[in-house]
Each structure stands twice: as structure tokens, then as C-alpha cells.
Write a structure and sequence with these properties.
Blueprint (H helix, E strand, L loop, with lengths): L14 H6 L4 H16 L12 H16 L4 H20 L3 H11 L34 H36 L7
Helix pairs in contact: 3-4, 3-6, 5-6
Length: 183
């Protein structure tokens, strides 16, 4: 469903409003009742609300289409990875902190900022570099954070999408009784 046409307030779930707009009252009542039940469900799923989200959703749709067309997993992964980075760069100019802040804002995260990293604090005594017993920080930290955030958001969506495709494909094969092909 497209979020642009769904009711966005509970006050919009009055079937009389829909009937006044030209919809059948019985249909509007069923629709509003179902929509209200979905909104009140404890396992409510809302669309991700970050810049570029629609592009990521489109990417997963293309990925699912590739699965259905039996494209090799390696080819799917390579294409998805490149397109994912392209979307990230187009939406956030490669700024992984902006991605993180957008995501945190979308889930109403209210945590205080993390404490400063001990890697960059001067050692006791005031002078010198990072103690030699500790490895120096790498510049790859932001890439690892981006990867973790991206995977935390994308993998559950992909898993649900693949499960849906597999179940749909099984249903088609069972319904047609011949491996999904009509004879």
C-alpha cells in the first residue's frame, strides 16, 4: 500500500467521512475497521522514514525480482551492494553520521550522545600518543558503523521479502500443480 493514500490520523477512520467522499459506506466501514486493527496491532510495521528510503525499497524490489528470475546470489549481492552505496552517497553525500542521525530521528531515539572515545584521549601524564599496548584507531571505523547500521535496517526487510517471495512461489506451484508452469 502507498502511505500517501492511507489515513494518517485516527479521526480519518470515521466511515461516514469516506462515505461523504463518495465511497460505499459498507466498504468504508470494513476498510476503516481493518486499518484501525492494523494500527493498534502490537507488531505494527511502519515505513522507514529516512532520506532515500523509497530508493532502498525500490532496490529490494529489484533484488526480489532477480531472485524470482534465478539470478545468481553473487550477482545479486554485487549489484545490491553497489546500488546501496550509490543511494547512500546520493542521499547523505557519503556522510554516515547523517544516515545515523536520520535513522535515530526516525525511531525517535532520545539517548544522550556517546562519551568521547578513549582512543583519542591523551594518556595519563598529559603527553604522548596512544599507549603502545593498544592498537591505533583505524580510519575504517565509519565504514564499519555504516555497514552495521545498513545491515540492521536492510537485512530484516530482505529476509521478510525473500520469505514472502518463497511462500508466493510455493503457493503458485501448489495451485498449478506443475512446478509453477501451465501445461
Amino acid at each position: 500500500m502507498c502511505a500517501d493514500i492511507l489515513p494518517s490520523r485516527t479521526s480519518q477512520l470515521d466511515p461516514q467521512l469516506w462515505a461523504a467522499a463518495g465511497y460505499d459506506l459498507e466498504d468504508a466501514t470494513r476498510y476503516c475497521t481493518a486499518h484501525q486493527a492494523a494500527m493498534n496491532h502490537p507488531n505494527l510495521h511502519v515505513q522507514i522514514r529516512i532520506r532515500g528510503a523509497s530508493k532502498f525499497v525500490t532496490l529490494f524490489g529489484q533484488w526480489a525480482d532477480g531472485v524470482m528470475r534465478n539470478v545468481t546470489p553473487a550477482a545479486l549481492a554485487a549489484t545490491a551492494q553497489q546500488r546501496g552505496w550509490d543511494i547512500l552517497n546520493a542521499s547523505f553525500s557519503g556522510d554516515t553520521n547523517a544516515l545515523r542521525l536520520d535513522y535515530w530521528s526516525s525511531i525517535n531515539r532520545q539517548l544522550p550522545p556517546p562519551p568521547p572515545s578513549p582512543w583519542f584521549a591523551p594518556p595519563p601524564g598529559g603527553q604522548g600518543n596512544v599507549p603502545s599496548s593498544q592498537p591505533a584507531p583505524s580510519d575504517g571505523g565509519s565504514v564499519n558503523q555504516t555497514l552495521v547500521i545498513t545491515l540492521a535496517v536492510i537485512l530484516p526487510v530482505c529476509a521478510a521479502l525473500i520469505l514472502g517471495i518463497v511462500l508466493y512461489r510455493c503457493a503458485v506451484e501448489c495451485a498449478w500443480g506443475c512446478g509453477g508452469r501451465r501445461t
